[in-house]
Design goal:
Elements lengths: L6 E9 L19 E10 L4 E9 L10 H7 L3 H7 L3 H12 L4 E3 L3 H11 L11 E3 L1 H6 L27 H18 L6
Parallel strand pairs: 1-4, 4-5
Antiparallel strand pairs: 1-2, 2-3
């Protein structure tokens, strides 16, 4: 692929949700997009090889009990979050340390979710603004519509079915990489 960063991070998030919350834009009583999982992969931009992965769970504080809707959607259990979840400041701190200085790409609004959670915890956002990008722009520049697709379904734009369970942050980051590989196979890619 042309002009991708030599090394970059693809990341995704999962956050609290309830039946209809997305349609309401989380405007229902006590609906907050509290982070539950960050999943990320480090990618070699020349070969599109995954070179490392990262997953961290966070314990929601405003709504510590996950909804049945969320658990069914993501496959993330209350037991997992209770046992492995960190407080958000520690979770994002670990993510920022793992990212280092590498550029970050996500599908749409994941950065906004992280920033929103920083505001919930009255803390500064620990990742530099100039390193963020929306990976949808790369697909759009190559003539691939992204409307109607998510990180977990973009491979369908290439006639493929997703190979991993959707709504797991690490799986969704890998689905984006699968789609980048399909894009690479179909054409040269414009610069990010």
């Amino acid at each position: 692929m042309n002009k991708l960063p030599e090394i970059f991070i693809l990341f995704d998030t999962e956050y609290t949700s309830w039946e209809g919350a997305m349609d309401r834009n989380w405007s229902g009583p006590n609906e907050y997009r509290e982070l539950v999982q960050i999943g990320a992969i480090r990618v070699d931009g020349r070969t599109l090889a995954e070179t490392a992965d990262f997953t961290v769970y966070a314990r929601p504080e405003k709504n510590p009990e996950l909804s049945a809707f969320f658990m069914e959607l993501t496959g993330i259990s209350q037991a997992t979050v209770d046992a492995d979840g960190l407080r958000f400041p520690e979770a994002i701190g670990r993510f920022a340390a793992w990212v280092g200085d590498d550029p970050l790409y996500c599908w749409g609004g994941d950065r906004a979710v992280l920033e929103e959670n920083c505001r919930f915890h009255a803390m500064a956002y620990p990742l530099a603004d100039n390193r963020h990008g929306d990976i949808r722009a790369l697909f759009q520049a190559a003539g691939i519509t992204t409307v109607g697709y998510a990180s977990s379904t973009i491979v369908r734009a290439f006639g493929q079915e997703p190979a991993r369970r959707a709504h797991d942050a690490l799986n969704d980051a890998r689905q984006i990489l699968d789609a980048l590989r399909l894009l690479q196979a179909s054409r040269s890619t414009p610069r990010l």
